[in-house]
Specification:
407 residues; alpha+beta; 9-stranded mixed beta sheet; 5-stranded mixed beta sheet; 12 helices; EC 3.6.1.77; hydrolase; magnesium; Acyl-coenzyme A diphosphatase NUDT19
Length: 407
């Protein structure tokens, strides 16, 4: 862990997408010939989405100290156990590989988000950030949902073959198949032990002769909690994405998580617009990105190849206008040059201008505009960095009835 952090707590999350049905070749061709993903800023979303996968969202408890009642991707705080050198024994077959077989990204070191770039050896850990953050996401996913993203040690040779011959094995180019290592009773026992003490996750992997499947998780993004939310807690969160061939057995923990939901990205946003569930800013943005891929295989292929490029650190800066609340992201024309990435101050900007005037006066747009907690438009006119994609739904004008802010 990075104990030098004063204003941020490090965390990791994973976006889980799982296939729901296998389409025929004709169905796939039709969807490719007529790619019309939903526009999340419009009210007439298609009632019959073309997605062949669902994404997992977990509802946080009303008693949660961070984002109560919000639906979020599985994940949580980094624990010292995630950086424990005891993992060296678990991954001993991959210690000679860069980042234990994850390889290096092309992004220049000086532009890498600190959560990935921090030299952990100086902090006493031989586990690289890229590995430990994935371990954290796997552990937290197990604690919160009962989904165990591990791979048996006996598959080490297959993994090594994929690393040596990346284009020579369907395993690497297809979504991941999970292994059922435990029956429900043993799964519940280990889950309870890991919840009591995260170091038990290392012990569990040793006794079950398995490894956290870090290779199935692809770097997707990095979000920092902005100022101006109804919370004093702030997190520096690494986002990963993992595509699965089937929806796994899922059980909420009844503590922090009170409900889970497997739904297509468009169904989630329809429910959000209908005020049936609440989403935080990163979930709105990332679901919009995913919606460019109705087919799971396309999402998996894109995520796998794009991860080699690295990612941009997103710290939203709040701007209160006369009729809306705007969250500016890097690259937006109004994004402050001196944005506080230290987490020490984090000012809130204000203007007497309204939504339409702000939009007309800005040529470079990268922002989310909220008219109330459930009415949001995503505006992106810039080219995303590191070969990423912008979310669907940019530049749509909300109706005049929405101009009156209810925030």
């Amino acid at each position: 862990m990075n104990l030098a952090l004063r204003h941020w707590k490090e965390a990791a999350t994973v976006i889980l997408a799982a296939r729901t049905r296998l389409k025929t070749a004709t169905d796939c061709l039709k969807s490719r010939e007529n790619p019309s993903p939903p526009d999340f800023t419009k009210s007439d979303l298609s009632p019959k989405p073309v997605f062949d996968y669902d994404v997992l969202l977990l509802k946080r408890s009303v008693k949660s100290g961070f984002m109560p009642n919000a639906y979020v991707f599985p994940g949580g705080l980094v624990d010292p156990s995630d950086f424990s050198n005891d993992w060296l024994e678990t991954f001993k077959s991959f210690r000679h590989w860069p980042n234990f077989g994850l390889g290096f990204v092309k992004q220049a070191p000086e532009t890498r988000p600190p959560i990935f770039a921090t030299d952990r050896q100086k902090l006493g850990s031989l586990i690289p950030s890229a590995v430990a953050l994935r371990i954290c996401a796997v552990r937290e996913t197990f604690e919160e949902s009962g989904i165990l993203l591990v791979v048996p040690k006996k598959e080490e040779n297959n993994i090594a073959h994929c690393l040596n011959h990346p284009g020579d094995n369907n395993v690497a180019t297809s979504p991941t198949r999970l292994n059922e290592l435990l029956d429900e009773r043993e799964l519940a026992r280990w889950r309870s032990l890991v919840n009591e003490n995260p170091f038990n996750f290392i012990r569990m992997c040793g006794e079950l002769d398995c490894m956290p499947n870090i290779w199935a998780m692809h770097e997707w993004g990095n979000w920092l909690t902005p100022r101006g939310l109804e919370t004093s807690r702030r997190y520096d969160t690494a986002f990963f994405i993992c595509c699965l061939e089937d929806i796994p057995r899922t059980i909420q923990d009844e503590k922090e998580i009170v409900h889970f939901k497997w739904s297509t990205p468009s169904e989630v946003m329809q429910s959000f617009q209908a005020r049936q569930l609440f989403l935080a800013l990163p979930q709105i943005y990332e679901l919009g990105r995913m919606s460019r891929f109705p087919q799971l295989q396309d999402l998996h292929s894109f995520a796998r190849m794009r991860a080699q490029e690295g990612c941009e650190r997103f710290l939203a800066v709040r701007l209160d206008s006369s009729d809306s609340r705007v969250f500016l992201l890097p690259g937006d024309e109004l994004y402050p040059e001196n944005a506080d990435f230290s987490g020490e101050k984090g000012v809130i900007l204000r203007t007497e201008k309204g939504f339409e005037q702000l939009q007309q006066e800005s040529s470079a747009l990268h922002r989310l505009v909220f008219f109330d907690l459930y009415t949001v438009t995503v505006q992106v006119s810039i080219t995303p960095k590191y070969k990423h994609l912008s979310p669907i739904g940019g530049l749509s004008q909300p109706s005049s009835s929405r101009h009156k802010s209810q925030l």
